[in-house]
Amino acid sequence: MKHILITTIAAVLLVVCVEAQESSPPPETQSAGPTAYCQAQDIKPANPKADRALIDAVRKGSKETEKIERVKQAIAAGADLDVKMQGGYTPLHFATIYDHKEIAKILIAEGANVNAKNKRDMTPLHQAARSGRKEITELLIAKGADLNAKDGNSLTPLDLAIQRKKTETADFLRKHGGKKGAVYSIHVAAKGDIEAVKQHLAAGADVNAKDKIRGTPLHYAAAYGHKKIVELLIAAGADVNLKDEEEKTTLHYAAVNGRKVIGELLIAEGADVNAKDEDGRTPLDATSVFNKAETAALLRKHGGKTSEELKAAGK
Q1: Would you say 107 and 98 are in contact if contact means Cβ atoms under 8 Å apart?
Q2: Three-state secondary structure along 56-88?
Q3: pLDDT single digits (tens) 153-193
Q4: Are residues 179 and 138 in the same domain?
Q5: Taking burial as the number of CB atoms within 10 A of a residue's CB, which of 79, 105, 117, 183 is the most buried?
């Protein structure tokens, strides 16, 4: 599966897309058909009818008292409290998304897993934090939710609350020990937290460490356009030509996002201007994805070629 990294300005190469708006369910669940939840299960559900009833009771519009009664009925009929819809969302995820605190209480009291993760490794607390559901956040923490669980991008609930400017929820998380993902991961820190990067390096972190998709801190810093972090990492020994699992280099990341200044820096530090990824595409090819003309001109100035040009030249 191709990994596309997206910044707030342009698509980059390593990060998963942002989730749905806090006022609506995740996009993959909005049009999910009747069998979608079955497709998400690793084993055949014991009572699919009750499972479906539980999901519908949490999601579908009706008066709160009616929802609660339907949830109780589904549970009594044997519904799996941690049944997963397509995307890996459990009933507790949905209760959080829709801000149904009383339903969340019932689900937890009956044994729902407060740390269940969806396919993006987001827990119900991640959902509550990013949506600013302070009361549900309090409930989840009181019931044992992992304050610093990391999602697929190594982001914690606090990271998501800060991203969405949910100040009250962010303050509450901090009060109870919530920390930013940058504290745990130099890769997350490289996306914009230079002080955290310095702390990781001072503590002996491997400047060329690779994450689960073999991305390095330098890849992320270049993709997100943080020149000072790029300089810091290179000074600490970062290899400008290391490749990720798709054989993309840091210069590929800089090129696809039009990071001209960073591209100049990387080339000056010995970046291979014609490095090929697993599809044979060069950094110059990458500039064409979003028509980064200035960066393309820079690469050509330093001998950059497209894959077709290199092929024609027998390279």
Answers
A1: no
A2: HHHHCCCCHHHHHHHHHHHHHCCCCCCCCCCCC
A3: 889 999 999 989 999 999 999 999 999 999 999 999 999 99
A4: yes
A5: 79
